[in-house]
Amino acid sequence: MATIEAAVPDQGRGASTYAGGVWSWITTVDHKRIGILYFVSGLVFFLVGGVEAMLMRLQLAAPGNTLLDPATYNQLFTMHGLTMILLAVMPIGAGFFNYLVPLQIGARDVAFPRLNALSYWLFLFGALLLNSSFLFGGAPQAGWFAYANLTSSQYSPGHGMDFYILGLALAGTGSIVAALNFIVTILNLRAPGLSLMRVPLFTWMTLVVSFQIILAFPPFTIAIVFLLFDRMFGTLFFEPLGGGDPILWQHLFWIFGHPEVYIVVLPAFGIISEVIPTFSRKPLFGYPVVVYSGVLIGFLGFGVWAHHMFSVGLGPLANSVFAGLTMLIAIPTGVKIFHWIATMWGGAIRFRTAMLFAVGLIVMFTIGGLTGVMHASPPADLQQTDTYFVVAHLHYVLFGGTMLGLFSGMYYWFPKVTGRFLDERLGKAHFWLTFIGINLTFFPMHFAGLHGMPRRTYTYPAGLGFEGYNLTSTVGAGITLLAVLVFLYNLVRSLRSGERAGASPWGGATLEWSTSSPPPVHNFDWTPQVRSRDPLWHDGVELPAAEEEIHMPNPSYWPVVVAAGALTLAAGALIGLPVVLLGVAVMVGGIYGWAFEPIHG
Amino acid sequence: MAERTEGYSRVPVQRPTLWITALSLVVLTAACGGDFPQSSLRPQSDVARSIDDLFRGIFWLAVGVFVVVEGALLVAIVRFRERPGAERPKPVHGNTALEVAWTIVPAVILIFIGVPTMLTLWKIDRPPQGEVLRVEVVGHQWWWELNYPDLGVTTANELHVPVGHTVDLRLRSEDVVHSFWVPRLAGKRDLVPGRENQLWFTVDSAGVYPGQCAEFCGIAHALMGVRVIAEEPDVFERWAELQSRDAVEEPGEEALVAAGRSIFFGAGGCISCHTIRGTPAAGVLGPDLTHVGSRSTIGAGVLRNTLVNMARWVKDPQEVKHGNLMLDMGLSDEHARDVAAYLGSLK
Amino acid sequence: MERTNTGVPNEKMLMWAFIGSECMLFASLIATYLTYRGRSLVGPYPEDLLNIPFITVTTFVLLMSSLTMVLALSAVQRGDARGSRVFLLLTAVLGIIFVGGQAIEFSHFAGEGLGLSRNLFSSTFFLTTGFHGAHVTVGVIWLLSLWVLTMRGRLGPESSVKVEVAGLYWHFVDVVWIVLFTVIYLMSGS
After folding, report:
1. CATH of domain A27-543+550-555
2. Domain span at residue B120?
3. Which member of C14, C27, C123 has the closest CB to residue A237?
4. For B271-321, what is each residue's pLDDT tens digit?
5. Same domain for B154 and B42?
6. Does B268 share its domain with B138?
7. What is the mean pLDDT of residues A448-454?
8. What DSSP character marks residue C182?
9. N or C terminus of chain A with fewer C-beta within 10 Å?
10. ipTM exceeding the 0.95 mark
11. Angle ∠(A73,A79,A81) on CA atoms, nearest 5
């Protein structure tokens, strides 16, 4: 242990402090603060999505239940999906990107700090706009996948779908902007000596995900623009009576939607690829292969979208091709799992909460991956698609995979962010309650689905054999909710009175552990010179002798002004032309203000 | 400073075994009981059986992989737990032979999944040869229109088919995307507006096979049931013959039926949406009611078809099936009872 | 200039990544256009309306603007203030002529009864070319802003990367038009 500590350079002594007050948060361009904003917003939406899920589970606890009417239920499952994927998991992931990537690559901030702030505000305003639909005549009720032509103004009157389009357009733009920023940051701002094949896995996965975002979101943007024009101006993109084809939506949606699955899961893979080596005290087994398999997953993710559409009737040839490509993804995914186990093999494993969640991810994701291979087989999928079997599969991947990974990261990096540990006893309670809760919730869904229970149904009749599974799932959801409450309590308590943590509480190998906890505004007093893949383990950091001159960017209110303009523009689409013009004016004014603002003081 | 750096394990090890046992007990309890009339695991047709065989093969392969992977994980976390006084583990950066091996092994397993998949896929996608019974299935929000073009039969929500005879369904939609799914007989196939899809199967034995719409299609999607009623060929032929007839007024009918008829064709306004062949009722928005009395359910499977239930349905369709498109015609209790009696007489 | 690992300035790399993203945007539009080609249920159809000679001229204008863009960048890099002003303005003006041509074309189509919601051709045509026109318009505003900077003498060789990034965007928009011109106009006969 002592040897490891000796390798940690004493960074962050001349800690500068942040300005206080709400205004300082609104105008912040600091990647760490933006990371915290993303994280907290994502957590709030995670709770919102969780409450939505709990309401649905209560409705489904018994056959023929009347707790919720169908319109409410349909809004809830639509918003639950959108919220969890786009407003909870992605922003929490973005919180990690923002906080950690510059620290892991030895940079003082991202390449474009103000653009980073803009990303956050666009996400937040989009999320709020989407959720405000509950107050203005009802949320969208067509599922997160929103298949045309159910979403046309004929079949979805009211403004629910308009909120879907406009809210996601804003949030999606925010994601693209953030991804562009991180691509440049990771490719360009690495510390000297930190070649790409020495970059920590989490940062690598961020890079892969960023590329996926910039390539996957535009087709979805086009799809929602088509839908907007269909609904507002009577174009015929998805209108069968005018020759339009609703299947076009499905293609455009899933070209986005399938990469999106990897966009939410790869960051979690990155996180546990950091956690497992640290708590096994062994470097990651086969680093290059883990990197390449991540890249390969990201790449293949674009070639498999039609496996969501096997029941559409695309023909056996198309189905065979997409089935084959989908099965191929199992190889790099399996390889990752083997490498994590091999990293633990021969190690000295410490079961801190972060490690428990990481191991939990491997257990759960293996199950989710195996059921995924079952869907890859089109004939089998014809029975499974749109049933609770798929609900089980996707939650094993998204909760069992992504969320457990994100929780692992929270326990791992909380000391870095706050200077305090999360409580281990509460953490373990959180883990075991979560692990039991989600298995109890999602495992029975496999059976419900195979026995014929379709998804997105607000009720089911008695006598089909679904009762026991559904009741069990509801009980499990209650336990999961309890687990989340334990976590929140832990978060609040540890923030105030958690045990103090030093710069490198776990003996991690990567650069973020070389600076103080929490890091100073400028991250590092000296730019580290990196000489190995695990710089803090193998005497891989060298510090320059001379003091550096440090310039940090000024706070700026222009990002929030531009985002507010975009929000006004989007809201104007629902209110009227004058508001649209106002939004455009604010945006353009904001962009000019931004362009002529001096960056450094 | 009260700073702490992670040292050797101090927190006692918890035993996950107990929890996992408890968990599996609960799941197993839930897994037993009920006879699952809508289960994809109880195939009753050639197509469903092919899919089921394939699925079972993949399932057991997956179980094997699961056991190996989770077993290795278990061994790793038990054997390589940190022990006090032990040396820092040797840093292993990789092992090319091993890495190549565990890339190839999954690929080989995938061949064992991929090949049967392709065989089954092309087999069940080969259009039926020889004589088939053609049925047009038209999806509506939230009911199924069923036309037998060769038999002159039009009905709704209950698909009668002869056992041992290949049924060739032509699927299309009048409004939004639906998906036809009767798990014991075949996988799903979507009904897409502007396209025609095809689905076929040969039912093994007589029985009632429930199913339902599997693509979210709006507010009453959960209540868009379909039932396949498979009958011996002679029973089926009798049914088809009966269904192809026009509705007729039987002499000496009950007063209720006559009263109901006059409401149906008059104040009730029913004929603007419904057809009864052999009468002036020729609406096309709702299901054909020529032989509605012979069906076993009402409202795409929401209620059993009894006089009381039918009266409840025509009186307040929204109460029975929230959001459905049948209008509330403001019938009084008596009028609803009369209409129900008339509809019940349409055998 | 800040040190970067790749040697490519951050702004330029940002624009390259953005162009990558934009490729997917236009690819989706073009794929949709091709999918719906010849599937309009009612007229007017593309062959009734498209005025290929006219659009060939505006296409030529847009291509010329890429040339003037190159000259503008080179002038800025050389510190040639007059050349910077002239060529930036000229590029913007050529862009305006192109967008003007598009406006004339759109209003002509509308006059011939091809409203936005008329048929699949109108839906796909207006959105695809409209998206591109909006990109040109943004480019024109950007170029005019740079031109204002040159007029005030605030755009010297030291900040030539600003012009370079705008140029990348401008060339990309031109290249997209070449594809659109081929797909929509040149292939309309087949």
Report:
1. 1.20.210.10
2. 36-83+94-231
3. C123
4. 999 999 999 999 999 999 999 999 999 999 999 999 999 999 999 999 999
5. yes
6. no
7. 97
8. I
9. C
10. yes
11. 105
